[in-house]
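Here comes my example:
=====
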Amino acid sequence: MELVSILVATIAAFAIGAVWYNVLSKPWIEATGIPVDEEGNPEGGMDPKLFAMGFVFQLIVAGFMRHVFTSSGVDGVFAGVVSGAGVGAFFITPWIALNNSYAGRPMKLTAIDGGYATLACAVMGLVLALF
Protein backbone atom coordinates (compact mmCIF):
# COMPACT_ATOMS: atom_id res chain seq x y z
CA MET A 1 0.00 0.00 0.00
CA GLU A 2 2.90 2.36 0.70
CA LEU A 3 4.17 2.10 -2.86
CA VAL A 4 0.69 2.85 -4.19
CA SER A 5 0.38 5.90 -1.95
CA ILE A 6 3.79 7.16 -3.09
CA LEU A 7 2.86 6.69 -6.74
CA VAL A 8 -0.55 8.38 -6.33
CA ALA A 9 1.06 11.27 -4.40
CA THR A 10 3.57 11.71 -7.20
CA ILE A 11 0.88 11.66 -9.89
CA ALA A 12 -1.18 14.22 -7.94
CA ALA A 13 1.79 16.56 -7.47
CA PHE A 14 2.76 16.18 -11.13
CA ALA A 15 -0.81 17.01 -12.20
CA ILE A 16 -0.85 20.10 -9.97
CA GLY A 17 2.40 21.13 -11.65
CA ALA A 18 0.78 20.87 -15.07
CA VAL A 19 -1.93 23.29 -13.97
CA TRP A 20 0.47 25.58 -12.02
CA TYR A 21 2.95 26.00 -14.83
CA ASN A 22 0.24 26.24 -17.48
CA VAL A 23 -1.29 29.18 -15.62
CA LEU A 24 2.11 30.75 -14.87
CA SER A 25 3.88 29.80 -18.11
CA LYS A 26 4.38 33.35 -19.40
CA PRO A 27 5.81 34.77 -16.15
CA TRP A 28 7.93 31.63 -15.70
CA ILE A 29 9.35 31.84 -19.23
CA GLU A 30 10.08 35.53 -18.69
CA ALA A 31 11.77 34.88 -15.35
CA THR A 32 13.93 32.04 -16.69
CA GLY A 33 15.10 33.98 -19.72
CA ILE A 34 14.57 30.93 -21.93
CA PRO A 35 14.64 31.91 -25.61
CA VAL A 36 11.19 31.80 -27.18
CA ASP A 37 9.87 31.47 -30.71
CA GLU A 38 7.55 33.96 -32.43
CA GLU A 39 4.55 32.48 -30.58
CA GLY A 40 6.15 32.96 -27.16
CA ASN A 41 6.85 29.26 -26.61
CA PRO A 42 10.28 27.94 -25.65
CA GLU A 43 12.43 27.48 -28.75
CA GLY A 44 12.54 23.84 -29.80
CA GLY A 45 9.67 22.91 -27.48
CA MET A 46 10.01 20.97 -24.28
CA ASP A 47 11.92 17.70 -24.35
CA PRO A 48 9.72 14.83 -23.04
CA LYS A 49 12.77 13.56 -21.12
CA LEU A 50 12.48 16.63 -18.87
CA PHE A 51 8.97 15.59 -17.84
CA ALA A 52 10.08 11.99 -17.23
CA MET A 53 12.99 13.19 -15.08
CA GLY A 54 10.67 15.57 -13.23
CA PHE A 55 8.33 12.70 -12.43
CA VAL A 56 11.20 10.57 -11.13
CA PHE A 57 12.48 13.43 -8.95
CA GLN A 58 9.00 13.96 -7.52
CA LEU A 59 8.72 10.22 -6.91
CA ILE A 60 11.90 10.44 -4.83
CA VAL A 61 10.45 13.35 -2.82
CA ALA A 62 7.17 11.50 -2.24
CA GLY A 63 9.02 8.36 -1.20
CA PHE A 64 11.15 10.17 1.32
CA MET A 65 8.18 12.17 2.60
CA ARG A 66 6.43 8.82 3.23
CA HIS A 67 9.48 7.66 5.18
CA VAL A 68 9.70 10.87 7.21
CA PHE A 69 5.96 10.89 7.93
CA THR A 70 6.07 7.29 9.12
CA SER A 71 9.19 7.84 11.22
CA SER A 72 7.88 10.99 12.86
CA GLY A 73 4.31 9.85 13.41
CA VAL A 74 2.60 12.26 11.04
CA ASP A 75 -0.97 11.01 11.10
CA GLY A 76 -4.17 12.53 9.78
CA VAL A 77 -5.07 14.72 6.86
CA PHE A 78 -4.33 18.06 8.53
CA ALA A 79 -0.93 16.89 9.74
CA GLY A 80 -0.14 15.47 6.30
CA VAL A 81 -1.00 18.70 4.49
CA VAL A 82 0.81 20.93 6.98
CA SER A 83 3.88 18.68 7.10
CA GLY A 84 3.95 18.44 3.30
CA ALA A 85 3.61 22.20 2.92
CA GLY A 86 6.39 22.59 5.48
CA VAL A 87 8.69 20.38 3.42
CA GLY A 88 7.98 22.51 0.35
CA ALA A 89 8.18 25.86 2.10
CA PHE A 90 11.06 25.24 4.49
CA PHE A 91 13.26 22.64 2.75
CA ILE A 92 12.73 22.85 -1.00
CA THR A 93 11.95 26.54 -1.50
CA PRO A 94 15.01 27.83 0.38
CA TRP A 95 17.21 25.54 -1.71
CA ILE A 96 15.57 26.84 -4.89
CA ALA A 97 16.19 30.38 -3.61
CA LEU A 98 19.83 29.57 -2.88
CA ASN A 99 20.41 28.15 -6.37
CA ASN A 100 18.55 30.99 -8.07
CA SER A 101 20.43 33.62 -6.05
CA TYR A 102 23.82 32.24 -7.04
CA ALA A 103 22.69 31.97 -10.66
CA GLY A 104 21.51 35.58 -10.66
CA ARG A 105 17.93 34.56 -11.39
CA PRO A 106 15.06 36.88 -10.45
CA MET A 107 13.13 36.39 -7.22
CA LYS A 108 10.03 36.04 -9.39
CA LEU A 109 11.35 32.66 -10.52
CA THR A 110 11.94 31.60 -6.93
CA ALA A 111 8.39 32.65 -6.03
CA ILE A 112 6.89 30.66 -8.90
CA ASP A 113 8.99 27.53 -8.36
CA GLY A 114 8.87 27.74 -4.56
CA GLY A 115 5.12 28.23 -4.64
CA TYR A 116 4.80 25.10 -6.71
CA ALA A 117 7.12 23.14 -4.41
CA THR A 118 5.02 24.15 -1.41
CA LEU A 119 1.69 23.36 -3.08
CA ALA A 120 2.91 20.08 -4.59
CA CYS A 121 4.35 18.89 -1.29
CA ALA A 122 1.12 19.82 0.50
CA VAL A 123 -0.79 17.73 -2.05
CA MET A 124 1.69 14.88 -1.59
CA GLY A 125 1.19 15.14 2.16
CA LEU A 126 -2.58 15.01 1.70
CA VAL A 127 -2.42 11.91 -0.46
CA LEU A 128 0.09 10.17 1.80
CA ALA A 129 -2.12 10.90 4.82
CA LEU A 130 -5.19 9.48 3.07
CA PHE A 131 -3.52 6.13 2.39
Observations:
- The two ends are 7 Å apart (CA to CA).
- Residues 2-130 form one domain.
